[in-house]
From TrEMBL:
CDD domains: DUF820-like (cd06260). Keywords: Endonuclease, Hydrolase, Nuclease. This is Uma2 family endonuclease. The lineage of its organism: Bacteria, Pseudomonadati, Bacteroidota, Cytophagia, Cytophagales. The keyword Hydrolase applies.
Length: 224
């Protein structure tokens, strides 16, 4: 809530400053030209990317990610397996992995995990490569991504009304669960113990430890 308030205050201040200068139209024209140039770079980005790298387009910049650490990869597979088994069994929609490129208004992200409700998933084609805003996203922190996961991505996911956002921390073995209320994310849970229950994926509830431990993960699969 504090992050959103600061963003609104900053936006209002920028608008106020622009409106107080006599050449406001010229300023807006310059901004539009810059956005048009950025869009050209974005289209080139779409043409140049390959499936070998994890890359994102954020505020005009191409971000190439480093190879994932072992603990990051294990968390991805544990949680992804739980999500995929449950969603497929219940016929609830589609779970996507880190190579699903989510195209928002300005930026393109490859979340670690994402989920689309059935009504949205049913409109997708088998050869689709750009995806709309999911209903649920998981990002697994790493030293190189933590600032973006908590910063620009948090704000962008919130602005595009992605209803639920989990941030998984491999170092502290904690999960932060955010749920959208109105226009703002609210922190529902930050814990390394107990269960976590999704607001978006009906009936999906797992022990947090199952995200970080192989034996507990197998137990959770059996109990789904």
């Amino acid at each position: 809530m504090e992050t959103l308030q600061l963003t609104k205050e900053m936006s209002n201040r920028i608008v106020s400053e622009i409106m107080n200068v006599p050449d406001a139209y010229l300023v807006l024209d310059a901004v539009q030209k810059a956005l048009d140039e950025e869009q050209k770079r974005r289209l080139k980005f779409y043409n140049d990317i390959t499936g070998e790298q994890k890359v994102e387009f954020i505020n005009g910049e191409i971000i190439v990610h480093s190879p994932a650490q072992k603990q990051h990869g294990r968390i991805f597979f544990r949680l992804g397996h739980l999500l995929d088994i449950y969603v497929n069994r219940e016929g609830l929609g589609l779970v996507g992995g880190e190579k699903y490129m989510v195209a928002l208004t300005r930026n393109d992200y490859e979340p670690d995990l994402c989920y689309f409700r059935k009504e949205k998933a049913d409109k997708m084609t088998d050869k689709q490569v750009l995806f709309p805003a999911p209903d649920f996203i998981v990002e697994i922190l790493s030293p190189s991504t933590a600032a973006r996961d908590r910063g620009v991505k948090f704000r962008d996911y919130q602005a595009h009304r992605i209803e639920e956002y989990w941030i998984v921390d491999p170092e502290s073995h904690t999960v932060e669960q955010y749920h959208l209320f109105g226009d703002e994310y609210q922190l529902i849970l930050k814990s390394a113990v107990g269960d976590i229950k999704s607001f978006v994926i009906d009936g999906f509830q797992i022990p947090i430890v199952a995200i970080f431990d192989d034996a507990e993960n197998l137990k959770a699969i059996q109990n789904l």
